[in-house]
Amino acid sequence: AVFMIASWGCLLPLGVLWARALRKADRAIRGKPIWFAGHRVLQTCGVLLQFLGFVSIIIHKQAGSSMLVPHFTTPHEVIGLLVVIFGCWQPLQAMSRNLSCIGHPRADGTRTRARAIWEYMHKGVGYAAATLGLLNVVLGIVYASSLGFGDGLIPVAAALFASLSVGAFACLVLVWMRTLAQSEVKAVVSRGE
User: DSSP assignment of 57-113, as one string?
Assistant: First the structure.
């Protein structure tokens, strides 16, 4: 549960917000635009934690049983499976942007039809996954409560989710504000004021 809370309750939605909020920023990290560098790091860490969480959950459900335990029988489990599939699809799709038939936007900003479709799919699946992932974190906390995981787990999971989400969002806002301030300074300097 902790892996899924960290990935879908924090890192993956933050990676989506990072790319969206910092898309027009001039800053770069190791030669890559800050929006892309941060997006890639956050999404990579989030997908790795998602994978660890998924495997841990399957192993935990199977533990102590000599028979195959049914999986994906509750709304939380079904949505979780869908979100994990979307989460695994995204890096594969991201790598396809280097194919010559898709390519990158041209210097003048125009895009091929294949690139426009790719962007629509990548962003659409990403937004859907992040939204469903956040929803499923909340459903997971409710589901854990219904399974009788005791009063201690629910407040800890909720506090972890809240602190990670608020902390991550605060970091994003600070980076965004700093980037805006630097852009305004550059604009003033270029106008000669």
Answer: HHHHHHTT-SSPPP-S-SHHHHHHHHHHHHHHHHHHHHHGGGSTTT----TTS---H
Please give the structure tokens belonging to residue 112. Answer: 């091929």
Residues 158-188: pLDDT tens digits?
777 777 777 777 777 777 777 777 666 566 5
**Cα–Cα distance measured from residue 100 to residue 81, given in angstroms and rounded to the nearest whole number:** 32
Mean pLDDT, to the nearest integer, of 76-97? 94
Map residue 32 onto helix, strand or coil: strand
Which tens digits make up the pLDDT trace of 135-166?
Answer: 898 888 888 777 776 566 667 777 777 777 77
Provide CB contacts within 8 A for 17, sequence distance 6+.
169, 172
Helix (H, G, I), strand (E, B) or coil at 125: helix
Closest CA to 162 of 9, 7, 1: 9
- How far is 12 from 126, CA to CA, in rounded Å? 9
**Cβ-contact 4, 53 below 8 angstroms:** yes
